């Protein structure tokens, strides 16, 4: 078990069981909490959590001790649990229907309970950090990192939510600048910078420039990832992606709508503004037809080619004298290219 990343989730559950027991939680409540955590932490690709372990291996460049391997696996699962709490809350706000091939959690247990459980999962992340890492010299740095990432993610989520409500006019608020802010704060920091920074902290990296470089590359990877997500929400196979796309109906500020508004004729622009964010199939189909008329799939291919070229160049130009390694980013980058889910 010591070398099995997946098996360390059992340690997470055992530790949480003990913590909840100390709070004198009734057995039924404790079982519900553990079930919620299990259902919303496992079942995905696990990319963020595994990235902690993979990055630690790359940065050290040697066989990990049992202690370092265990700490890397546990911290990876804590990152995954934080991700789970974000997804539960995000699905409520986006009125999503499916997640990982199943009905969204709020549709299974109700909105109020799902919201409470998202908050509880977030709080239990810090319980786990304390229990596993409080004796480590880098404990405060880990805490500061998780608090900072939480604030950044919730700031991006707030911006995303504000732009999606009907009272904000699309023609003045939907822009690539606004979109890039949302993507950077809502997605890039927690999805890519958090796992890599956790690995850097675990191995004791102190060079400030390494953290600057890691954040810059993480943001680029995050923007590429969300660029793909936006496209898959509209054009992907829901059976493959694992969720039904709702961006058009929920009036999401995606690169697709931003570019469409920029490229459209006055007549097409009027159709975009009058149909985007409407909860009926006719309006959604009108938007998709406009996307097709504006050749958004061709634009996707062009932009993806640029993303791959630019990110690849940035990774190759990374200064490894700071202790940061190109391979840590190459592993994540390879997994993302041309993905279908």
From TrEMBL:
A GO molecular-function descriptor: geranylgeranyl diphosphate synthase activity
One Pfam short name: polyprenyl_synt
Cofactor: Mg(2+)
Superkingdom of origin organism: Eukaryota
Coiled-coil regions listed in the entry: none
GO biological process assignments: farnesyl diphosphate biosynthetic process; geranylgeranyl diphosphate biosynthetic process
GO terms for cellular component: cytoplasm
Keyword terms, alphabetized: Magnesium, Metal-binding, Transferase
Gene3D superfamilies: Farnesyl Diphosphate Synthase
PROSITE patterns noted in UniProt: POLYPRENYL_SYNTHASE_1
Signal sequence extent: none
Cited PANTHER family: FARNESYL PYROPHOSPHATE SYNTHASE, FARNESYL-PYROPHOSPHATE SYNTHETASE
Protein family per UniProt: Belongs to the FPP/GGPP synthase family.
Protein name (Swiss-Prot/TrEMBL): Farnesyl pyrophosphate synthetase
Provenance organism: Schizosaccharomyces japonicus (strain yFS275 / FY16936) (Fission yeast)
Gene name tied to this protein: spo9
């Amino acid at each position: 078990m010591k070398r099995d990343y997946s098996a360390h989730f059992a340690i997470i559950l055992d530790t949480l069981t003990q913590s909840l027991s100390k709070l004198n939680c009734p057995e039924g409540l404790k079982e519900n909490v553990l079930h919620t955590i299990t259902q919303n932490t496992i079942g995905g690709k696990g990319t963020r959590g595994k990235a902690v372990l993979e990055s630690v291996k790359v940065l050290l460049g040697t066989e990990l001790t049992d202690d370092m391997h265990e700490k890397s696996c546990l911290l990876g699962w804590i990152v995954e649990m934080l991700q789970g709490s974000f997804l539960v809350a995000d699905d409520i706000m986006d009125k999503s229907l499916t997640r990982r091939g199943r009905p969204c959690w709020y549709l299974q247990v109700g909105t109020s309970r799902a919201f409470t459980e998202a908050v509880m999962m977030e709080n239990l992340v810090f319980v786990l950090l304390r229990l596993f890492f409080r004796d480590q010299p880098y404990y405060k740095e880990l805490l500061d990192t998780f608090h900072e990432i939480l604030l950044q993610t919730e700031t991006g989520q707030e911006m995303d939510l504000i732009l999606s409500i009907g009272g904000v006019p699309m023609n003045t608020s939907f822009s690539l600048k606004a979109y890039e802010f949302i993507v950077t704060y809502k997605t890039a920091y927690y999805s890519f910078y958090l796992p890599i920074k956790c690995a850097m902290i675990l191995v004791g990296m102190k060079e400030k420039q390494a953290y600057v470089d890691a954040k810059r590359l993480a943001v680029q990877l995050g923007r590429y990832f969300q660029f793909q997500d936006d496209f898959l929400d509209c054009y992907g196979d829901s059976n493959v992606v694992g969720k039904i796309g709702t961006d058009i109906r929920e009036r999401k500020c995606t690169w697709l709508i931003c570019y469409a508004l920029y490229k459209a004729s006055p007549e097409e622009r009027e159709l975009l503004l009058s149909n985007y964010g409407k909860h009926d199939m006719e309006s959604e189909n009108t938007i998709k037809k406009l996307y097709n008329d504006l050749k958004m799939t061709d634009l996707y291919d062009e932009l993806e080619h640029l993303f791959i070229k630019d990110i690849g160049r940035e990774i190759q130009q990374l200064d490894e004298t700071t202790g940061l390694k190109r391979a840590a980013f190459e592993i994540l980058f390879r997994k993302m290219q041309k993905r279908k889910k």
